Amino acid sequence: MMTGAKRKRSTVWRKIQAVRFEDIKAWCMRRLPILKWVPVYNWKESLVPDTVSGMMLAIQQVTQGLAFAALSSVHPVFGLYGSFFPVIVYAIFGMGRHVATGTFALTSLISANAVERLVPSVTTNFTANNNSGILGLSEFEMQRIGVAAAVSFLGGIIQVAMFMLQLGRATFLLTEPVISAMTTGAATHVVTSQVKYLLGMKMPYISGPLGFFHIYAYVFENIRSVQLEALLLSLLSIVVLVLVKELNEKFQRDIKVVLPIDLLLIIATSIACYYADMEYVYGLEVVGHIPKGLPSPKMPPMNVLPEVVTEAFGVALVGYVASLALAQGSAKKFKYTVDDNQEFLAHGLSNVIPSFFFCIPSAAAMGRTALLYSTGAKTQMACLISCVLILVVIYAIGPLLYWLPMCVLASIIVVGLKGMLMQFCDLKKYWNVDKIDWSIWVSTYVFTICFAANVGLLYGIVCTIVIVIFRFPRAKTLNLKNVKEVEYKYKAEDNCESLKQVKIISVNNPLVFLNARKFHADLIKIIQKDSMSSQCEQNTLLCPFSNGSCHGESVQSCHSERCVLILDCSGLNFFDYTGVSVLLQIYMDCKNRHINVLLAHCKASLIKAMQYGGYLESENPVFFESISSAIDAIQIHRNGHVEDQFSPGT
């Protein structure tokens, strides 16, 4: 035992010693993308657009941070922290140049479930100023952010674990219809959660299956409790936001810098609320006390982790899916690459590390990414510049937001989700392209609004897999080729005549257990269909397949010039044991019926697998590099056979 342990330790030590400086450097460059783009950053050309983008992004980060913190059922100041720490972490580890991570509506909504379940709300008013807790906030508010931070911590751990398991490769299961339907359904949930603020109603927290419908049922049952002042201010805010944002988009090319209507609306309504004393005169709910400065790091409450596993998985999956879609879209638009697995690490650490600073779960948001597009951002430097400005807000401007009405924050959230809600327009595209994708979109959306975003996402993935399983075996697997299609020319006409018994069939799909049976059936069908157009049995493959023997005058022809079936395997990208077994079965069946089977364009792994399976003839070659080389071999064999047949003495 000791000898084995020593040998194992020495092996590990040798591996450690074998690690070179170049290996460490390559690993750091791969896992820390900031080391790639910072040394080559073009300060002359990129700094100005990145600075402008960073300033505009900071405004949006502040407004969304305050709003999404309220959506997460925690004090708005924690949204400011969530707009600062995750951005720095992602800039170091992330690969998306135009991905602005931070607070996110969907992950905030998911974490709110855990917060409301474990720390039920006594009042939704954030103005309570009890200095018994950290940052001058009440113990109740600190307990709530503790739960949200625990969700962020565990969700980040799950994402890092997925990175270590290399699950980024499984993102092909996340089809566009599923992501579109899930995010649209989740955006519908977010809008519904803001109804109480838009209407100024006092409403208990409602969640769970069909909670979406229970919220509206409660609203209609208590319609008389709507606060008219809050409703009018909400409508005015929404109209102003939509109108100015539309004008910004229309004249974006001319004015270059968009009007920061979110910031202007916050300033205007805060001033109006302060001078009109709306909190006490009209009873409007306001943000309240916002502490100054950054908090000291503190471990999230570990005893809460078992209670928030469901929400943590939801944050990990939904946040990653939404963020990855934006990163891939950015990479496609600006022609660079994104490592799906590295994004797991970047977003995981963007949740784990900030959770020690009282941050709610984070992810990338469509609105922020669109802002970086429109303002001409070049790199993640724009996000880092926004962090500097957010720091100014945290230390200097934050306390001035005391009088900001909650209904205005709700309006900002609703208008900010316009991009996601507009994905309803995708339905027409899916209907025209593929009715099944349309059905997946609709059903995934229904599941999302009836249950939750993570449930809808899982349903969409399972639904996609099931449909692929049913559609894959029905897909066309084979295609009959003509000899002329391979551009093979012969000088003598008799050579062309002799090649009439050569059939070339291309394999179009992978050969696995899902389609192996149909592959065999398609092969028989193609051969039979081709033989129907032939005038005599001896020039077809139907005779051997139909009864296994030849009759009459065709016996001598069949045995002198055996039919040949060439399988073009260039489209056979991968296979499994069942697929190889079917190929071997086809080979043996054809051999028993006097048909030679040749395989062209085979990968080395397929050749090895079939040779391992056995039953292959050793005297004649079966595998060829190309169809042309296979036809050459047939011609040489037949010419040699004719010479032997007519040589003297035979």
From TrEMBL:
<keyword id="KW-0472">Membrane</keyword>
<keyword id="KW-0812">Transmembrane</keyword>
<dbReference type="Pfam" id="PF00916">
    <property type="entry name" value="Sulfate_transp"/>
</dbReference>
<feature type="transmembrane region" description="Helical">
    <location>
        <begin position="379"/>
        <end position="397"/>
    </location>
</feature>
<feature type="transmembrane region" description="Helical">
    <location>
        <begin position="145"/>
        <end position="165"/>
    </location>
</feature>
<dbReference type="GO" id="GO:0016020">
    <property type="term" value="C:membrane"/>
</dbReference>
<feature type="transmembrane region" description="Helical">
    <location>
        <begin position="348"/>
        <end position="367"/>
    </location>
</feature>
<dbReference type="InterPro" id="IPR036513">
    <property type="entry name" value="STAS_dom_sf"/>
</dbReference>
<feature type="transmembrane region" description="Helical">
    <location>
        <begin position="402"/>
        <end position="424"/>
    </location>
</feature>
<dbReference type="InterPro" id="IPR002645">
    <property type="entry name" value="STAS_dom"/>
</dbReference>
<keyword id="KW-1133">Transmembrane helix</keyword>
<feature type="transmembrane region" description="Helical">
    <location>
        <begin position="203"/>
        <end position="220"/>
    </location>
</feature>
<feature type="domain" description="STAS">
    <location>
        <begin position="492"/>
        <end position="634"/>
    </location>
</feature>
<feature type="transmembrane region" description="Helical">
    <location>
        <begin position="257"/>
        <end position="277"/>
    </location>
</feature>
<feature type="transmembrane region" description="Helical">
    <location>
        <begin position="226"/>
        <end position="245"/>
    </location>
</feature>
<feature type="transmembrane region" description="Helical">
    <location>
        <begin position="308"/>
        <end position="327"/>
    </location>
</feature>
<feature type="transmembrane region" description="Helical">
    <location>
        <begin position="444"/>
        <end position="470"/>
    </location>
</feature>
<dbReference type="GO" id="GO:0055085">
    <property type="term" value="P:transmembrane transport"/>
</dbReference>
<dbReference type="InterPro" id="IPR001902">
    <property type="entry name" value="SLC26A/SulP_fam"/>
</dbReference>
<protein>
    <submittedName>
        <fullName>Anion exchange transporter isoform X2</fullName>
    </submittedName>
</protein>
<dbReference type="InterPro" id="IPR011547">
    <property type="entry name" value="SLC26A/SulP_dom"/>
</dbReference>
<dbReference type="Pfam" id="PF01740">
    <property type="entry name" value="STAS"/>
</dbReference>
<feature type="transmembrane region" description="Helical">
    <location>
        <begin position="65"/>
        <end position="93"/>
    </location>
</feature>
